[in-house]
Amino acid sequence: MNFIPNTKDEVMEMMSLLGIDSIEELFKDIPREVLFKEALDIPRLNEFELTRYLGEKLSKNQFFPPEKVFLGGGVWPVYIPAVVKYILMRTEFLTSYTPYQAEISQGLMQALYEYQSLLAELLDMDVVNSSMYDWSSAAAEALLLSVRATKGDIVLIPQDMPYYRKMVLKTYLWGAGVEYMEYPLDEEGNIDISFLNKVDGGRRIAGLYAEYPNIYGYIMENLDEAGEYVHNRNGLFIVGVDPLSLPILKPPSAYGADIVVGEGQPLGNPLFFGGPLLGIFGVRRDMKLIREMPGRIIGLTKTVDGERAFAMILQTREQHIRRERATSNICSNEALTAVASAVYISLLGKNGLVKLSTKLLKYSHMLYEMLASHGFEQPYNLPYFREFSLTLDKPIETKSLLRHMINKGFLFGAVLARYHTVSLNEHHSQQALEGLISSIEEVIG
Q1: Of 305, 321, 343, at which residue does a domain stop?
Q2: What is the rounded distance in angstroms from the CA atom of residue 265 to the CA atom of residue 151?
Q3: 51: pLDDT strictly greater than 80
Q4: What CATH number does the domain containing 430 carry?
Q5: pLDDT (average), residues 44-66
Q6: What is the pLDDT of residues 119-138, one digit of tens each?
Q7: End of a domain among 286, 316, 343?
Q8: Is residue 18 included in any domain, yes or no?
Q9: For the domain that residue 245 is a member of, what is the CATH number?
């Protein structure tokens, strides 16, 4: 069926309702200098010619192999075993549609149930959904859940956190009319409890969000105090995690976390040029929290004949039942990335995950020792897992150093908030670290 455009009268009626005089007013927030002034000069080519033309254009991009990438902050290069890719190619899993109970297959529901079970064990949480868009949306939904569950009127978020994640949190909170306050780190790099204690005692704190490890890669040593602080005020403690740290670190539940969120991308998913990703969302066993969870939950049940069966449960959380009473409008299909993570975790198993996490820990500390001998220091004396931050006593600006390293073929971390932060991934080896150090020596002398 061909597209049928709106009539002129219909367009005028819509503009009148919106209170605008022209279509261009819808885009007035876009800077004029970035708008095209004329039609694009797109050549008319056949498929063969177009493929060659695009190849020539793309060849101008600079490619960084994963062993030369030292960026992190939420997504990381990861090696994906062939079996993960093979299983995802099965047409039973490949769909962009979010099926409802009557349409979803038992096989897909079992795969998602396995994902939930595996993540619940990894996070040490009782219930995990399947799933959220990404870490940012999961953290934002967790804060909204804390407001619904506690009837509080303010949430606390880190002052030091990735910019893009903070902007998502602020957008969600603004849309829901929820007030927030940013809390700082103290001089040691831990949560500033003294600042929290100054928050007006008359405020009803709904939730406190912290990251573990934090934006600079450090494992803050007073998470239990932060959990105790918010619990004493009848709020919820929400913790964001790098899931690959959990095979060797204490789970957030050990610090009193009520809700755990994070990014599932490093569990068997590629970078995807920024998406789709996989938002992890788990809660402790509390029916008030479970009923308020966003997204879908797959449950195990029995048929009328007593056979094992899987079903979507507590579906009023999504908009496809009763929109005005939905706890969340999250209903996109992140099932494919969730299935990838389930296959990946199953393939590696407990020993494989511990081995991988230990490798990341080992090489991050090895790299810092190499950097320390060239004048780099860390801003905090705290434990770290795969990421850490740096200061430099050489007369060269961090951004200048990063530009020089790009010319050497390395993505040597990034400036996150206040510090230059470096990240390790499983592609790194001693040879890769030595190559990085050799290039740094050429730059800083």
Answers
A1: 343
A2: 33
A3: yes
A4: 3.90.1150.10
A5: 92
A6: 999 999 999 998 899 999 99
A7: 343
A8: no
A9: 3.40.640.10
Q: Indicate whether 113 and 163 sit together in one domain.
A: yes
Domain carrying residue 207: 82-343
Which one has a higher pLDDT value, 395 or 419?
419
d(CA 170, CA 36): 31
Q: pLDDT > 70: what percent of the chain?
A: 93
Cβ neighbours for 89, distance < 8 A, ≥ 6 positions apart? none
177 and 268 housed in the same domain: yes
Joined together, the tokens standing for residue 283 give 């809660």
SS3 track for 127-165: EECCCECCHHHHHHHHHHHHHHHHCCCEEEEECCCCHHH
| Helices then strands, each counted (H, E), the chain | 12, 13
Element (H, E) at 18: helix 8-18
Q: What was the pLDDT predicted at 199?
A: 87
Residue 372 and residue 231 in one domain: no
318 and 376 in a common domain: no
Mean pLDDT of 143-168: 95
Give the burial string for 68-84 (b: 16+ CB within 10 Å, else e): bbbbbbbbbbbeeeeeb
Point out which residues pair with 444 in neighbouring strands: none
Integer Cα distance of 295 and 330 in angstroms:
6
Structural domains in the chain (count): 2
Please calculate the CA angle 74-364-132 and round it to the nearest 5 degrees.
Answer: 20
Contacts of 278 (CB under 8 A, 6+ apart): 131, 132, 134, 263, 264, 265, 267, 269, 334, 337, 338, 340, 341
Query: Other CB atoms closer than 10 Å to residue 265's CB: what's the count?
Result: 26
Q: Are residues 287 and 322 in the same domain?
A: yes
pLDDT over 90 (residue 314)? no
